[in-house]
């Protein structure tokens, strides 16, 4: 009997020990796996955070380029000017202007000579590539002691230029849609109506494209009006010329007076009606008296 009890106790003790070892083995086999998953998640999250930080650092801000400098737009500028000065030698100055014009690939748009009392004047309009406008003006100014006037004007047409380009794009997209609809038209009436609308759109495209070509021309080439003159002795009979000038001035003043009266025609009409009404009123008053 005692032997059976001892055997039973020994067997229970062995079973208990084997269960504890199995639990420890299971725990040991589970812990590395859970640790590996947690470490992977933590590493992945850290990499994502680093990527986000890098993207924030490398992404350009609004209005900034990749180097962190402000973005510059290709502005569309129209630059024009006019200069006037006195010269001692008209021919020499004229040849110098033509030489400078050829050097900067410009061209003469108009060329006029005027002879007034006491001076000879030469006026030239020159179209110059915009990038060379300032250099051209500087080259013309060499040798000029003093300008009678020197005016440079710059007009920014960037907004209008972009609006015109956007308008052309929109009109052409509309033209493409009308062409697609025209291919699906089934009746003659539908075809005629679509072609009418298509013609209107194409006409608008031509107008806008014409405006764009004009802006491109004005932006690409600047205009400079040059006026230079030389004083010459006044020749002729001074009394006779003064008498002729007096007659001409008197005639001009008479024409100006007549034109001024014509400008007052509404008041003249009102005055006439008022005078006529006043006379009738006086006549009636005399008859009653």
List keywords for this structure.
5 strands; Alpha-Beta Plaits; 66% helix; alpha+beta; 289 residues; five-stranded mixed β-sheet; flat; single chain
Give me the secondary-structure topology:
Blueprint lengths: L1 H57 L18 E10 L3 H14 L3 E10 L2 E11 L3 H9 L5 E10 L1 H27 L3 H33 E11 L6 H26 L1 H24 L1
Parallel strand pairs: 1-5
Antiparallel strand pairs: 1-4, 2-3, 3-5
Helix pairs in contact: 4-5
Structure description:
This protein has helices at residues 2-58, 90-103, 133-141, 158-184, 188-220, 238-263, 265-288; strands spanning 77-86, 107-116, 119-129, 147-156, 221-231. Helices cover 66% and strands 18% of the residues. A hairpin with a 2-residue loop joins strand 2 (107-116) and strand 3. It has 289 residues and is an alpha+beta fold. The longest helix is centred in the N-terminal third of the chain and has 57 residues, at 2-58.
